[in-house]
């Protein structure tokens, strides 16, 4: 059996391949294919998939024998959200989670795929929820299925590096990639906080290209040490992007410590961008806590750039995928199984197929007779059950399971109609009503994209932190909220520009619904 773990990286697409069985696995190969780029923009999903198809064509053996395939979905194409629900019943959590999340995120869940990991605590439940757009993922799955490598699982990148983090300490894993740096805070082997920072290896290359007035390929050669330059000039060229990266990582760790109520014990660094000479020293000096490379179970350093596909492959070599792992193959994109077993049977030739067909017919006839007798017995039990539940129904009307279901459906509709007549009051909790009103006050998501955090609702006011893509969008949010009479005292503050994003806070003194201020 073969395991193929695919990483759609921005610099190269990679695959870690294991072969063996449930007890013994051996690393077969680590394979990669460069993604063409000139540095003007981050490589698109289409460019990555084209590189992946080229890699798959060069290794036709991967598609043979029904390989167990998994895919790491790029962090910049996914959103990770942490939410707490005030109850612990798992069934109730699973039913409530989509509605609770939809009230806190600025996009239509019908266009998204959602995966989650749920952890019940003493009095509440903590959920880590990941989203991505449905259509790009669906197209990717179709491309891989046509190549004979349909993934059974689609994991988020931030979750995969946890495989190598300490299970005894609260650890942060910083994966410096090509387009993004992923910061994953790991507690007891599970990611509890994750964030993608848009400063990484590509920014280092761009800074070098500007400083030395060369093209992207030449700058990559300088960054990787293939073209030597004076160390002081290289350090000066990289001062700005490295400083920004350190600031983003530091603020992410501080925010995680505030959320978790404890300090992070150590930082582990990995990723292709971490090959930059001196970067580890910058982390150790700036963060002020122990910093080291990422190591596997044998104590060997995980190859830089391979933590994501290696972590995914090791995950699949265990005793199956844990039920609470965040998997984006959910809903109508859930894995339904393939036809590899059938293809393997057909390879043995027509004689075996004919023999199996005859055997199937004989067994089916025997099962048909048995099932016929069992169905008659089931029909009789259905009649007894329905007549005991509905004593006013004539037993002659309950002929089989279909008529029984129709009678029960009809009676259920009658009960529901009575319930609707008896319950005409509006029982919406005040907090939920305020949340609904605030959500409707925001501009439509297709016009303005807003990410809201730290939302607080009290009887006196509503306050939240928000991030959007520019000052115009920030003003649009304020204007849209103020159009609602009860929110017309909304005040925006702490507005700051951070690269392509603008962050701000908003406080809304509450005016009772249905009134205006002073009325």
What does this structure look like?
By secondary structure, the chain is of the alpha+beta class. It folds into 4 domains: 1-159 and 303-347, Nucleotidyltransferase, domain 5, CATH 3.30.420.380; 166-293, Nucleotidyltransferase, domain 5 (2-Layer Sandwich); 358-422; 430-509, Gyrase A, domain 2 (2-Layer Sandwich). The chain contains 14 helices and 17 strands. The strands form 4 sheets. Strands 3-2-1-4-8 form a 5-stranded mixed sheet, with helices on both faces. It has a 5-stranded mixed sheet with strand order 11-10-9-12-13. Strand 9 (171-176) and strand 10 (181-187) form a beta hairpin. Helix 5 runs antiparallel to helix 7 (231-260). The longest helix is centred in the C-terminal third of the chain and has 40 residues, at 350-389. The chain is globular and about 95 Å long. The model is unreliable at 339-348 (pLDDT under 50).
Task: Write the SSE topology.
Layout (H helix, E strand, L loop, with lengths): L1 E6 L4 E9 L4 E10 L10 H13 L10 E6 L4 E8 L4 H13 L9 E9 L4 E9 H13 L6 E4 H4 L10 E6 L4 E7 L2 E8 L3 H12 L3 H8 L7 H30 L5 E5 L8 H9 L3 E3 L13 H11 L22 H7 L3 H40 L11 H22 L7 H12 L8 E8 L3 E8 L2 H12 L8 E8 L2 E9 L10
Parallel strand pairs: 1-4, 4-8, 9-12, 12-13
Antiparallel strand pairs: 1-2, 2-3, 5-7, 6-7, 9-10, 10-11, 14-15, 15-17, 16-17
Helix pairs in contact: 5-6, 5-7
């Amino acid at each position: 059996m073969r395991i193929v773990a695919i990483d759609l990286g921005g610099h190269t697409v990679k695959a870690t391949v294991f072969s063996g069985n449930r007890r013994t696995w051996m690393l077969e190969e680590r394979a990669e294919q460069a993604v063409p780029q000139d540095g003007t923009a981050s490589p698109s999903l289409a460019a990555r998939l084209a590189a992946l198809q080229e890699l798959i064509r060069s290794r036709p053996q991967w598609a043979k024998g029904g390989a167990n395939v998994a895919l790491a979905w790029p962090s910049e194409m996914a959103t990770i959200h942490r939410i707490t629900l005030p109850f612990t019943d798992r069934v109730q959590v699973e039913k409530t989670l989509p509605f609770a999340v939809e009230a806190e995120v600025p996009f239509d869940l019908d266009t998204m795929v959602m995966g989650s990991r749920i952890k019940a605590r003493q009095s509440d439940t903590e959920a880590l929820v990941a989203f991505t757009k449905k259509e790009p993922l669906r197209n990717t799955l179709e491309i891989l299925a046509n190549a004979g490598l349909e993934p059974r699982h689609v994991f988020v990148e931030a979750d995969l590096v946890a495989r190598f983090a300490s299970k005894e300490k609260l650890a942060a894993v910083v994966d410096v990639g090509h387009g993004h740096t992923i910061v994953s805070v790991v507690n007891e082997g599970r990611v509890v906080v994750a964030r993608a920072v848009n400063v990484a290896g590509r920014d280092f290359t761009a800074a070098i290209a500007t400083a030395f007035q060369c093209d992207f390929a030449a700058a990559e050669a300088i960054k990787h040490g293939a073209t030597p330059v004076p160390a002081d000039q290289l350090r000066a060229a990289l001062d700005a992007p490295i400083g920004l990266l350190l600031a983003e990582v530091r603020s992410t760790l501080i925010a995680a410590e505030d959320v978790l109520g404890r300090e992070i014990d150590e930082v582990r660094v990995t990723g292709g961008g971490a090959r930059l000479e001196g970067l580890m020293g910058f982390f150790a000096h700036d963060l002020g806590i122990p910093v080291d490379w990422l190591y596997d179970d044998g104590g060997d350093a995980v190859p830089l750039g391979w933590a994501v596909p290696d972590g995914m492959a090791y995950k699949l070599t265990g005793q199956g995928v844990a039920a609470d792992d965040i998997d984006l193959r959910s809903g109508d994109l859930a894995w339904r199984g393939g036809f590899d077993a059938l293809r393997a049977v057909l390879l043995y030739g027509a004689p075996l197929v004919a023999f199996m067909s005859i055997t199937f017919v004989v067994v089916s006839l025997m099962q048909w007779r048995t099932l016929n007798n069992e169905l008659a017995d089931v029909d009789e039990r259905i009649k007894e059950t329905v007549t005991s539940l509905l004593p006013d129904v004539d037993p002659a009307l309950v002929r089989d399971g279909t008529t029984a279901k129709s009678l029960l459906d009809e009676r259920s509709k009658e009960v529901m109609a009575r319930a609707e007549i008896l319950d005409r009051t509006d029982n919406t909790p005040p907090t939920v009503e305020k949340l609904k009103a605030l959500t409707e006050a925001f501009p439509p998501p297709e016009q303005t994209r807003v990410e809201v955090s730290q939302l607080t609702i009290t009887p006196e006011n509503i306050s939240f932190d928000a991030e959007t893509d520019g000052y115009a969008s920030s003003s649009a949010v304020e204007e849209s909220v103020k159009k609602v009479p009860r929110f017309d005292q909304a005040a925006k503050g702490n507005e700051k520009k951070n690269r392509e994003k603008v962050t701000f806070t908003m406080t809304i003194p509450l005016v009772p619904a249905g009134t205006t201020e002073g009325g």
